[in-house]
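Appendix C: a fully annotated inverse folding record. The material below is reproduced so that readers can follow the format used throughout the book. The structure is listed first as tokens, followed by the designed sequence.
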């Protein structure tokens, strides 16, 4: 399970306390420490050590330049050229080492940043894919993707400014302050201190005022990316309805909101920039004015003036960089806020799993015991549903749309948990089994087969990790797909396109059948497994499925009743309750719901009572 989400999820009171930037920063640091492994921490520690060394050299090298100026400007001519040359060499070597250390810092920081990005990104992705179905149904894919990407950018901003701005400025500031104290330049130390305090006040004001605009920027970016992703993923629907202008207008409106959010951000940026420039001008002017007066009075040498000027520029400019860092860090925290909110969502968990989850039965008996379920309060979808699927048998579930057929499948896969009752697999309640053990025991053949943008072989092999090429090809043969695949230019290495759209509906469905058969589960769930196939292919695949399912339990969700006439038992649902059970002949003789459905399909010319092999028809409920 995701250790980041487990250790960084605050309670409700903590969430309220940490809704500002400071709280987000604390959570971000905690998340960073948890995510970073020893490699990333070592590289980051080395980068900080190099930064500190470079900052210390930057503070000391102007002293050599001061001595050169003083020696060259002395009233007595220089007796030996060697001393000024040595000081110049020392100054040059110091500058050279500062540059080398800066490049070494880039390398070490890059190693640490990329390792951290990989680990945080992996944990974030793991957290999102483990979220329950309810979570995914309530959010847009594009919005989640942009939230994760923004969170990673926020981490990069934080780490970059810690290494490149905050640490070097603080080390250099402390070194310069110590040098000024040593040379008894209290006046200039006071100017530096006053300027620093003024900078801190300005930066705090700025950080406070831009946090909300930064949050708006983050949210508007997410919304714009969500509109973009939705429109591109559903490109066929857009073209069917000639709606290009509609989606373009939606995207432009999202971009307009993004533009407005950035405008508010840059307004605050301009105001703060003027304040910072004023502080810089006043502090530099005061330092040089006092320096010139002291030189004229003979209290200070020209070299001292050069040193003071170097320090004024050298420190004030990095202090300005802290202001820019404050801007980026605040923006990064706003980005991180969205990601941290995502991490606070609770993923699917195995809290109730016991040792029973390790039991791997081979029979595949399935029992629904008084199962009641509702998606939302006040609207019950399933009402005390009870039936048994004996190991090795085929049971079909039929009913009109909205009767609860698909809800049973979602509960079986533990995409949702029942409100009351329980489901047992080989005598073990699935609520006490791990999610992995439940889902590995079941394979589903859905009606709407969505594939990955990958090769045919990898899409089939997705059914079982580590499957060999021979096993993949055997699964394709069972799905009546092998001859088609080998006729393609790239064979099993053919890429099927986004969501498998390069294949026809029937080809996608056969590939989904091959993927399910490769899994070799204890229980097969067929949801309209042949709905997109022609009659000849349907007959062939149904015979293959019948042979494959002969030694495992099969649960069929059906609308087209002609495909399940020889099921061992048919369960009829109506408004979430079991109203009839029995064989095809028994239910027809009963003259109830099933008989009415059968007669309606026969009269509509959509049935064929001569089909004697099992199949399924999907319900999109």
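Designed amino acids, in order:
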């Amino acid at each position: 399970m995701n250790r980041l989400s487990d250790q960084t999820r605050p309670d409700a009171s903590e969430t309220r306390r940490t809704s500002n930037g400071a709280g987000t920063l604390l959570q971000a640091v905690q998340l960073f420490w948890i995510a970073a492994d020893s490699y990333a921490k070592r590289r980051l520690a080395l980068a900080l050590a190099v930064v500190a060394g470079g900052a210390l050299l930057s503070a000391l090298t102007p002293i050599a330049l001061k001595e050169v100026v003083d020696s060259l400007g002395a009233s007595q001519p220089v007796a030996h050229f060697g001393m000024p040359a040595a000081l110049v060499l020392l100054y040059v070597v110091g500058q050279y080492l500062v540059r080398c250390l800066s490049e070494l810092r880039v390398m070490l920081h890059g190693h640490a940043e990329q390792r951290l990005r990989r680990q945080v990104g992996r944990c974030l992705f793991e957290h999102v894919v483990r979220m329950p179905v309810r979570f995914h149904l309530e959010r847009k894919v594009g919005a989640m993707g942009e939230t994760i990407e923004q969170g990673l950018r926020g981490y990069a901003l934080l780490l970059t400014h810690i290494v490149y701005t905050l640490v070097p400025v603080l080390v250099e500031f402390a070194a310069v302050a110590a040098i000024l104290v040593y040379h008894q330049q209290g006046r200039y130390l006071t100017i530096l201190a006053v300027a620093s305090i003024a900078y801190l006040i300005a930066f705090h004001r700025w950080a406070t005022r831009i946090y909300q605009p930064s949050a708006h920027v983050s949210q508007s970016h997410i919304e714009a990316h969500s509109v973009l992703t939705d429109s591109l993923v559903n490109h066929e629907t857009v073209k069917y309805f000639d709606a290009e202008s509609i989606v373009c207008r939606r995207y432009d409106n999202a971009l307009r909101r993004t533009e407005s959010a950035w405008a508010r951000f840059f307004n605050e940026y301009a105001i703060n920039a003027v304040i910072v420039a004023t502080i810089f001008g006043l502090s530099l002017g005061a330092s040089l004015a006092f320096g010139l007066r002291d030189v004229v009075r003979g209290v200070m040498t020209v070299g001292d003036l050069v040193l003071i000027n170097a320090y004024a520029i050298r420190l004030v400019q990095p202090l300005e960089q802290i202001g820019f860092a404050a801007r980026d860090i605040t923006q990064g925290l706003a980005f991180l806020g969205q990601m941290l909110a995502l991490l606070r969502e609770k993923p699917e968990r195995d809290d109730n799993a016991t040792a029973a989850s390790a039991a791997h039965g081979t029979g595949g008996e399935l029992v629904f015991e008084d199962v009641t379920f509702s998606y939302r309060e006040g609207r019950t979808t399933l009402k005390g549903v009870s039936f048994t699927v004996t190991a090795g048998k085929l049971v079909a579930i039929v009913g009109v749309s909205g009767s609860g057929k698909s809800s049973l499948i979602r509960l079986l896969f533990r995409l949702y948990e029942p409100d009351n009752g329980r489901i047992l697999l080989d005598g073990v309640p699935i609520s006490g089994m791990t999610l992995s053990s439940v889902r590995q025991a079941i394979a589903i053949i859905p009606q709407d087969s969505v594939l990955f943008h990958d090769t045919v072989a990898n899409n089939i092999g997705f059914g079982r990790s580590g499957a060999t090429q021979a096993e993949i090809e055997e699964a394709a043969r069972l799905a009546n797909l092998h001859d088609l695949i080998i006729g393609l230019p790239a064979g099993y290495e053919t890429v099927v396109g986004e969501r498998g759209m390069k294949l026809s509906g029937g080809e996608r469905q056969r590939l989904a059948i091959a993927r399910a058969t490769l899994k070799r589960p204890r229980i097969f769930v067929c949801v309209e497994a042949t709905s997109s196939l022609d009659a000849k292919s349907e007959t062939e695949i149904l015979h293959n499925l019948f042979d494959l399912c002969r030694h495992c339990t099969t649960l069929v969700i059906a609308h087209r009743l002609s495909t399940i006439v020889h099921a061992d038992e048919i369960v009829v649902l109506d408004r979430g309750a079991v109203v009839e059970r029995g064989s095809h002949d028994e239910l027809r003789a009963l003259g109830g719901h099933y008989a009415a459905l059968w007669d309606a399909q026969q009269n509509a010319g959509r049935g064929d009572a001569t089909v004697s092999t099992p199949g399924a028809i999907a319900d999109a409920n």
